[in-house]
Amino acid sequence: MGIFVYIGYLLLMRELIKKVLLEYVNTISESYRNVDPFGPFIRAELEKIYRPLGKWGQAPNPNDDCKTGMGVINIFPHSEQDVWSVLNRFDTNSKVRTQMKKLFLESNPDRTDDQEFQNWISQNANDLLGPKGKYTKGLVDMNMSTIISGNRNEEFAVNTLKQKFPNNPIKRFCSGDIRDTKKGIDIVIQFPQGEFTVQVKPFTKIRSFVDSEGDTFFEVNSYKFDPNKYSPRNVSSFMFVNSDSNNFIIFDNIQTKIGKMRNDIVRFYEPPLYTNMQFETEKKRPQKTKIPTKKLFGIEDDIQKNLEFRKSQIDRLLQNKQSGKSN
Length: 327
What we know:
The protein is α+β, with helices and mostly antiparallel strands and 327 residues long. It has helices spanning 3-10, 12-35, 38-50, 94-107, 114-123, 125-129, 136-164, 178-181, 293-296, 303-322, and strands at 56-57, 71-72, 170-172, 187-191, 194-202, 205-210, 216-221, 237-242, 247-252, 258-260, 265-268, 274-275, 282-283.
């Protein structure tokens, strides 16, 4: 069998532990998203301003490619073809939030409470969010830079996938579509067996490593990417693209094979589904000396023995599969 397939089977033992840990992380992540009040607060402030102006509603949906929720329309659009407003992105855009906080602290240097920050936004909503606001256009332009970059990456992803699957319908939703904003689906590829869904993310660096136990994994540097936000029920895969270098890589969204690290690094303990990149696997060294826990319990830390044990488990699984037994 191929080396990547063999390595994938070697990771079965590790996955059992990772599954428990990732379920815990998912619970914490979901709880955090549910208690963060900033998004609903901003949407409510936008509705107060734009509903009376007749600029609050849903984007038209002539061909099932555009199912938006309620939001600001027909002002500060994403493009000439859109009615969905960039203002609707303010609830999740970290740059806009940071800039608002900066403006708040300039006039209120001693007030750092989140509730005070929201009160200040309400008091200055027309300047920050209004159609002729003092700061509105600057915040829109700041958000547009992110949108333009994201559109470029998604267009590159669509063109790449069309080359791979020329006979399959590929759908990309409109700005503000709830399948994107609520489920994280950027692209859908139609197959006779069903849909294959893709979340597109930018990357700055991707490296391949082998650890001290002989397992290989990929480290992806992607700004503020949190894989735990995307349920495998909605998102089949992650496609990381760099439209400047025309490089891409696609990984299956299997939560037990993904680890969120610090400093915008995510590890994938699986081979990619598809990529145009070549990797030179590096050896991953531990950052600091660990306590020899195995030796404390009288167990020899022998890589060969570890691999032989894993191989015996893999052989058993393969025999069960060939004989039609369940795992």
